Amino acid sequence: QVQVVESGGGLVQPGGSLRLSCTASGFTFSKYFASWHRQAPGKERELVASITSGGEIRRYADSVKGRFTLSRDNFNNAVVLQMNDLKPEDTAVYYCYCTYMSSWGKGTLVTVSA
Predict the structure, then answer these.
(1) Could you report how far apart the first and last alpha carbons of the chain are, in Å?
(2) Please, which residues bridge with residue 73 across strands?
(3) How far is 70 from 79, CA to CA, in rounded Å?
(4) Over the stretch 26-72, which tens digit does the pLDDT of each residue have?
(5) What is the 3-state secondary structure (H, E, C) of the chain?
(6) How many angstroms separate the CA atoms of 90 and 113, rounded?
């Protein structure tokens, strides 16, 4: 079964960190472009970060540059979004996307609150 599944969301205080994982099954994740998106309540879904198949090119939204890092974990067939210095405005459901069969995950909730 082809799917991508997100994990690692939760509640964190401002300034804290979370590590989100997107694990693929049914295909080799490292061969495809991948990205993370987020959707806050009442807002449209936005692109957070992306990574090419080889991992050599990574792009970030201006709002997360310097705080978030996207990388590949090929051993676990996953991509990982390390999020540091989290802010309340980072609160959203985070979704993983892969160009293989235009696969979207169901999302993981990140809540940044004191």
Answers:
(1) 39
(2) 78
(3) 7
(4) 999 999 999 999 999 999 999 999 999 988 899 999 999 999 999 99
(5) CCEEEEECCEEECCCCCEEEEEEEECCCHHHCCEEEEEECCCCCCEEEEEECCCCCCEEECCCCCCCEEEEEEHHHCEEEEEECCCCHHHCEEEEEEECHHHEECCCEEEEECC
(6) 10
